[in-house]
Amino acid sequence: MEYKISILKDSDRIPELVTLFRTGLGETTEAFWKWRLFTENGQPDQPFAMIIDDEKERMVGISSVLPVLYGYGESERKCLQFCDWVVHPEHRGKGLIRMMYDYAYMHFRDKGYDFIMEFPNDNSYPIFQKYGFCEEPHIHCWSSSKHVFIKKEKLHDIHIQDKKVCFSEKCPAEIGTFIRQDRIARTPAYLKWKYDQNPDIDYKWVTLWQDEICIGYMVYTLTRGRFRTAVNVYDWEYPNTDSTILHKIISILEKQGNYISIWGRYDQNTQKLLEQCGLRKVECRTRLMLKDISERSWPTELTLTRIDTDY
Hints:
- By secondary structure, the protein is α+β, with helices and mostly antiparallel strands.
- It has 2 domains: about 5-140 and about 285-310, Aminopeptidase, CATH 3.40.630.30; about 140-285, Aminopeptidase, CATH 3.40.630.
- It has 8 helices and 16 strands.
- It is globular, with a radius of gyration of 20 Å.
């Protein structure tokens, strides 16, 4: 059997992608993939999908790839994040994942990229070990206590000290750019693409303002289970180590469901901040694996929020 690998450039093939995706990772929608692959995302390079066709030109393998920038200035790094590896069950064990990995590595090796980031499951973990990926620890979940019933409170803007906390359904038009050395740069265009344009998830916003300038935010969703509703924080930025205002925001959001969950990889100061807000740290099974492409490699400090791994 001969296979052909290429970059998906024809949005008319998205229905094939959706059908293939369902053989390995579950339900998805055409609207989601049109947004993800063919909508301007506010980053220097557009996300794309590698696809593998068999001899009959049937799509039998896929991996989407997210190129992103970490940090800024001299500390800036260009990263490739591999996502959603799927191989049709009839074509597994034939080296298609290795074929896609080699294609991406060779394609981007000389284009200024510094490292590859991957979040393997138990099945793919040995594969990436074999490819020379290094495992980086310390991804945790911070959760509040789970309550069977919490009386929901209507959200309304509040003032705390000299700052204003606002709640909204969309990214505020006035939001600025958030750039740090240890994480993906959050520009207004990227934030609005990531959260407001996503057709599959209804994100909600909390923003923190001082003197009419947005200095922090939190993006979350309500995930309803059979008995409880989780308030899952997907992304956030908080300006300092003072836990007073953050604790208040978390307390308000917690009452929109039965508990709040903040997942990610953070430095010691941020972990301490979350603990001061009454959240308990729990180990999770998500693995972070990294491989360098250039001599610059990956940032020494690397902050991740839930959205960075759920892309």
